[in-house]
Design goal:
- The chain has about 80 residues and is of the alpha+beta class.
- About 45% of the residues lie in helices and about 25% in strands.
Length: about 80
Amino acid sequence: MTKELTETIAKALVDNPSQVSVREEVSGKDVSLILSVDPADMGKIIGKQGRIANAIRTVVKAASVKEGRRVDVEIV
């Protein structure tokens, strides 16, 4: 669920939604979501002073509590 949520949020923010991909790496109860976007859209995902990136992380972490997992979002 958190992977789909991250992908949906990212696609809504960028100009090239077809270039958005989210990869999931699971290690026990910890999950890393690696979000990659078109280089031209990187500023839209990060936002001023990282505010958008932090908001994405906050929403995904809140959703992951339901699943009983610890989720970290990395933007590359």
